[in-house]
Design brief:
Layout: H1 2-23, H2 34-56, H3 99-112, E1 120-125, H4 128-142, E2 147-151, H5 156-164, E3 169-172, H6 182-191, E4 197-202, H7 214-223, E5 231-236, E6 261-265, H8 267-271, E7 277-282, E8 291-293, E9 298-300, H9 310-347, E10 352-354, E11 360-364, H10 369-374, E12 378-380, E13 383-387, H11 394-411, H12 423-426
Parallel strand pairs: 2-3, 2-4, 4-5, 5-6
Antiparallel strand pairs: 1-7, 6-7, 8-9, 10-11, 11-13, 12-13
Helix pairs in contact: 3-9, 4-5, 6-7, 9-11
Keywords: Decarboxylase, Lyase, Pyridoxal phosphate
Modified residues (N6-(pyridoxal phosphate)lysine): 268
GO molecular function, one term: carboxy-lyase activity
Amino acid sequence: MAMISTVAMDKKDCNENTKLESHFAVKEPYDECVVFRRERLIKTMTEFQEHLIERTNHVLGYHLNLNCNHLMDLSPLLRFHVNNVGDPFKESNLDLHSKKFEIGVLDWFAQLWEIEKDEYWGYVTNGGTEGNLQGLLLGRELLPDGILYTSRESHYSIFKAARMYRMDYQIISTLTTGEIDCDDLRAKLVLNKDKPAIINVNIGTTFKGAIDDLDLIIKTLEECGFSDNRFYIHCDAALDGLITPFLEQAPKLTFKKPIGSVSVSAHKLLGSSMPCGVHITRKRYIALLSKSVEYLATVDATISGSRNGHAPIFIWYGLNMKGYKGIKDDINKCLIRARYLRDGLRNAGISAMLNAYNIIVVFERPLDDEFIRYWQLSCVGNMAHIVVMPHVTTEMLDDFLDDLVRRRSVWYRHGNVQPPCLAEEIGFSNCSCLDHPKGLIDGN
């Protein structure tokens, strides 16, 4: 009977998938009348919009701010092709661009990260990965025989860049917080002191939100005998590049320190309907990548060449709508709600960690994959995390906690399976397993 039931279920799934594929198949317009075709397309788009609305209410595990209603004001621009091809600071023979908006955005971030207008260069990217690819390419061009050093909790794009650029690299250990272990960094620098160092510094790791100690990294480089011209630092600030500058006690991200580049994702804390980001570097470096393109009558220095011209407008509009105070208010609300979630998990006897100056709460991985998909959680090993973005309300967190506690009582009802020990992953004081039932709230 079980076999028959499984076969029947497989057939049902197959039929549903076939219907779904047919529903989204691209059909020749001449196979149906104009009226029916338009009705079919509108119905499909309406259903997809309803799907997005429902799923938006249950996005907890990813670095996305889904509060984007204000960007509906820009919908008339979608009928135009806007292409910011080439260097943002150079004109071309294509006038359908938004480079004035792009420069306005770049000036804002340059001021935020404390680099003078005549000393920086940058552009609006397709997101954090492109910003990292651009920054590490600059590092490699400046120091062709340099070794890349990055922590094991760095974003996957850092290792992608190493493969693409065929860079030698060293993976550095991390502390339980996810922060780079500078003792291990020192040991590996000493072993390779004859080669320049290209350092990826995480201003907020992807999973734990750990902020690498930039000042200690610079000190370690200097103590290991690396002068300024023998190291290049790229800061992957995908999320926290728009958080730490607004917090007085947070580590300072600034070009007044000997860093080479910073990248941030604009669709994360700020919010955007499309992935996008900002890359800033020192102007004197960019000549290494700049090439004249005759048929465009401009200079190209970017990874992507033709670039989304709508994205800078989205970022520019968001910055103008929110302003410095609005962004700071969003950050403070997220910080408060992150602590609220951490405390709620702890009070329910669930292992949880929240790093300082952070909005990412790490906790034990739920046992049910359906639950994980429903709440769209991100998981690594025995850990899951929630990123408390501006769209995440206290009500959403309460619904999540109630659901988790209710389902967890079923998962562990008979005692055959026990909650995982996360002491090694997040620290003994954050673990609430049977061996460490008295994890203490650290007050962050």
